[in-house]
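Quarterly update, task 2.4: heme C-bound model.
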Amino acid sequence: MKLIFGRSRLLRCAAAVLFALAAGSARAQAPAPAKPLLSDQAFKNVKVLKGIPVDEFMSTMGFFSSSLAENCLFCHVLESAGDWSKFAEDNDNKNTARRMIAMVNTINKNNFGGRRMVTCYSCHRGAGHPKVIPSLADTVLIPDSHHALPFDDAFRIRLAAEVRRFLLGERPS
Ligand code: HEC
Ligand code: HEC
């Protein structure tokens, strides 16, 4: 009994998803509305990403998530998971993200003529907290790594030994 109920609910859900997809593609074929709904009209607490279409705003949220390899709740209060209106609330990471947006805009304006050359991904590379130093293992310690520096073998072996000694505290054997 329970199973049948479960399955029919599942079917209804699937139907709803298909309907939404069909509605989506029908909408995609219709001429675009003259004025798309803008972020600060649709949302309650937009301070930085103002005046952009809602679709673009949401893709930006997706971009943040994938740049940092974190889900939405990294920057939004936990209650957002069950209540859409809670996305409007602020927390530390959300405020940090606002500062980061301003920083990225300034970097691009001052160095790249306003082109979007530096993004969240440039530094974060799939981490909430960006790395400060590259992994030496990738370059020096693994001789046949494709990132290996183009030094000759003798130099690379000496360099690797130095790196081990200074950074990893290994004694020469
Ligand atoms: C790296 C941090 C970060 C991540 C990850 C993130 N957001 Fe956001 N989100 C923000 C910031 C910052 C704002 C406020 C933007 C502003 O003030 O212009 C915001 C605002 C929003 C708003 C507007 C709320 C309102 O009413 O004011 C929604 C909705 C939202 N995010 C949804 C999402 C969803 C869904 C995800 C996951 C796909 C997500 N966010 C992931 C940082 C993030
Ligand atoms: C120039 C490099 C750089 C860029 C570009 C950058 N970040 Fe950051 N971000 C950092 C560093 C470094 C930290 C750690 C700061 C600290 O520990 O005080 C950080 C921290 C954060 C944090 C807090 C994470 C934590 O665990 O404390 C969030 C959220 C964040 N960044 C979001 C973003 C978003 C969103 C973007 C794109 C709009 C972005 N960052 C672009 C360097 C960058």
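Highlight for this quarter: Residues 1-26 have pLDDT under 50 and may be disordered.
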